[in-house]
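Private note to self, pasted from the team thread so I don't lose it. Backbone tokens:
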């Protein structure tokens, strides 16, 4: 059974049980409201209990089940917290809570949510086409944004969320946890208040503070749901594009191709840059900044700590190409012992051979001479693939 199927079954389980609870509560409230027994005090007991259970159990189950069914980003962390609290409702809630934790904490559930929330733009992002671009990705370089078409961007792994969005998501989960916990306190303490029995000392004075926290959590929850309802929704992967969407994509591609042709014509008209037209046409990416760097052997792109090494590599006749930001790629292997004898480098500069965790198995590994203080790198060949190639400093 796939992760998506498990999540869907869990969603329907909560929708059915939560909906049944709400429906039964409505029936009880209607029966109390239409009762002809004027001396009955059932309303004083039934109404508060139904309202508390609906607010703390049934309604969250319905909302969370709907979120799981629609693969909303907030649904998985919220329902993980709700499953923990569900386990307190022995014995049925314990079984459902354990089932929810088993499903939602699994890797297949995380993959199902990631696939459901991926956009077509992310899916359309082209993979790196060269060993050098793989090296730029492994160095965690920052992508530059040149003004001209054909500009290269180092293919780095984009973060799952921006810092502000990640902080907001953590705050929402913490508020949801506080709200659910406050709901349980209100339900338990309210039950003692309704029956007139003395509440335990531990929760006797927590009813009104917990009620305030519950109100705030519900208010923020309603606000978040309203914001998500108004926000434009990206087309899920696999959904057929509308005619307007295909037309917009076609116009965008045509405009990009026209801009590319204009830039190639501009390069072809410049005698010093004409040779880069053939390189771009065969699939290589050359921005104006990269071309300028390639034409001027005295130019440097790395930080001040790495510039002496960068200049020496270029002076040795080794091909060096600029990548994104303060990163360059050198077609050579680095001899660390000879490098230490020739250069006095600060402690922030280190030689690394990082594991290619975000690359395909077919991509070649890389080596880095990296300045941790400036986040600048010289990307070189890995010793395992540099047999017979140039070495710097020369032996």
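Design output:
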């Amino acid at each position: 059974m796939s992760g998506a199927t498990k999540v869907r079954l869990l969603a329907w389980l909560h929708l059915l049980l939560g909906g049944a609870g709400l429906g039964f509560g409505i029936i009880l409230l209607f029966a109390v409201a239409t009762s002809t027994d004027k001396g009955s005090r059932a309303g004083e007991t039934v109404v508060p209990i139904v309202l508390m259970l609906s607010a703390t159990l049934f309604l969250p189950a319905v909302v969370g089940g709907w979120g799981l069914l629609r693969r909303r980003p907030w649904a998985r962390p919220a329902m993980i917290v709700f499953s923990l609290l569900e386990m307190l409702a022995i014995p049925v809630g314990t079984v459902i809570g354990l089932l929810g934790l088993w499903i939602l904490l699994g890797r297949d559930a995380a993959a199902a949510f990631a696939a459901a929330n991926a956009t077509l733009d992310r899916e359309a992002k082209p993979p790196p086409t060269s060993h050098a671009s793989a090296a730029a990705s492994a160095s965690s370089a920052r992508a530059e944004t040149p003004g001209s078409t054909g500009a290269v961007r180092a293919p780095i792994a984009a973060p799952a969320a921006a810092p502000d969005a990640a902080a907001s998501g953590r705050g929402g989960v913490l508020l949801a946890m506080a709200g659910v916990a406050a709901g349980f306190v209100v339900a338990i303490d309210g039950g003692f208040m309704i029956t007139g029995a003395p509440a335990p000392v531990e929760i006797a004075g927590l009813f009104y503070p917990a009620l305030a926290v519950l109100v705030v959590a519900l208010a923020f929850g309603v606000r978040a749901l309203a914001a998500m309802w108004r926000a434009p929704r990206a087309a899920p992967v696999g959904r057929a594009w509308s005619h307007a969407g295909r037309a917009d994509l076609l116009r965008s591609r045509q405009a990009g191709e026209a801009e590319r042709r204009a830039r190639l014509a501009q390069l072809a008209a410049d005698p010093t840059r004409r040779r880069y037209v053939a390189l771009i046409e065969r699939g290589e990416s050359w921005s104006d900044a990269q071309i300028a760097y390639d034409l001027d052997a005295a130019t440097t792109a790395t930080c001040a700590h790495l510039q002496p090494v960068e200049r020496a590599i270029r002076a040795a006749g080794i091909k060096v190409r600029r990548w994104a930001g303060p990163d360059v790629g050198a077609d050579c292997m680095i001899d660390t012992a000879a490098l230490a004898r020739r250069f006095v480098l600060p402690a922030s500069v280190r030689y690394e051979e990082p594991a290619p965790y975000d690359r395909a198995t077919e991509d070649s590994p890389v080596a880095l001479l990296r300045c941790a203080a400036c986040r600048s790198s010289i990307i070189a060949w890995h010793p395992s693939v540099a047999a017979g190639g140039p070495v710097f400093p020369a032996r």
